[in-house]
């Protein structure tokens, strides 16, 4: 377990701040406020993605802070991701350079393959392409090993310091490791108190891979996300904040439920990237280094794990036909690809 350690260290020696700001579901107006608030609160790790279509706003904020002398580039840890429409070896450099231009950076600290499934976009901002019948425009020829080799080339070129993967299963990760010249540094997946990914955590520890948890609070904002799409949530979004075990531990430490949920994952050695656009909550999410959970606390929170039943990022409704892709990472969950 970790105590007050504020970074995790990759196999290559690079250090990743253990708390970062998630930026999914953030409008262009919201993200400017959020990134400013995060940097003011002490965050130096920002998790972005080409798919989110807001990298340019993040870049504007970063540039202002750097030019004003409020932060140095080397103090920042910026993550972004290859979009699914770029899951071809010949497209990796193109999309990486687009992200670099948008973020106004010379290099990325960690570049991830956002998901193992490839899509065919009509243009470079058609990040979630669908046909007239509502089916995802799937690229059935996705070759993860060849794609990884192109990711390695970006390290060689000095455009990224570390590379990793997101939403891959253990078999896919093993395939990458067994064929890699440069090993993945980080795996980003859904992970929270009701979906603790014990098998994956053990697997990653064995292979010296670090883990970053998206939706560490259960991503309650997804209810609004689905509503805006005119969709009903395919699974119930968990209310982790009001779980009696979490509430009791929070009262004991005089902390919020949010801080307990984040602290639990941190003590497991997992990086967390809670998403918020509210400056007060962004600040509160960073106040997790002045206390520790007891062995009893950790055991009680560990018992909240629901195993596979805790998996919630089901996008099969939005990405119809994704289950037919040979690289669908979760064929046994009967649920779609995750973001």
UniProtKB/TrEMBL annotation:
<dbReference type="InterPro" id="IPR020471">
    <property type="entry name" value="AKR"/>
</dbReference>
<dbReference type="InterPro" id="IPR023210">
    <property type="entry name" value="NADP_OxRdtase_dom"/>
</dbReference>
<feature type="domain" description="NADP-dependent oxidoreductase">
    <location>
        <begin position="20"/>
        <end position="304"/>
    </location>
</feature>
<dbReference type="InterPro" id="IPR036812">
    <property type="entry name" value="NAD(P)_OxRdtase_dom_sf"/>
</dbReference>
<protein>
    <recommendedName>
        <fullName>NADP-dependent oxidoreductase domain-containing protein</fullName>
    </recommendedName>
</protein>
<dbReference type="InterPro" id="IPR018170">
    <property type="entry name" value="Aldo/ket_reductase_CS"/>
</dbReference>
<dbReference type="Pfam" id="PF00248">
    <property type="entry name" value="Aldo_ket_red"/>
</dbReference>
